[in-house]
Amino acid sequence: MHIVDSGSASLGAAILILRAAKLRDEGKLSIAAIADELRGIAKRLIIYAVVDTIKYLKMGGRLSGGKALAAEIIGITPVIGVEDGVVSAVGKARG
Question: Cα-flanking dihedrals φ and ψ of residue 72, to 5°?
C-alpha cells in the first residue's frame, strides 16, 4: 500500500484515482511506480471553482460580513482555487 496525498479537494482525488486505475489496467508499472507518478501529478494539480453563494464562505470565516454584503449587493462571485492543499481566492466574476 502506498499513500498519495492529492493536496486537493475531492475532484483532485478523483483525477488521481482515475489515472491510477488506467495505469493499473495497462499493467506497465509497479505499485510503487504508480504511486510516484501520482505524486508527480498531484504536485501540478490546481483546482478552480466558482461558488454559487458566498453564504458558506462567510459562515466559514473566509470572508468578512462587510465584504460578503458588498459582494451580494454588486453581484460579485468569487473564484477560488486549491493549490498545494491551500484554498484561496484567485479572482472575482460579476453576474
Answer: -65, -40
Longest C-alpha distance within the chain, in Å?
A: 55
pTM here is 0.67
Distance CA 18, CA 20 (A): 5
Of residues 59, 58, 19, the one with CA closest to residue 36: 19
CB neighbours (10 Å) of residue 82? Answer: 20
Q: Which residues pair with 14 in a beta bridge?
A: none
Write out pLDDT tens, residues 27-84.
988 999 999 999 999 999 888 888 877 888 788 887 788 888 888 888 888 888 888 7
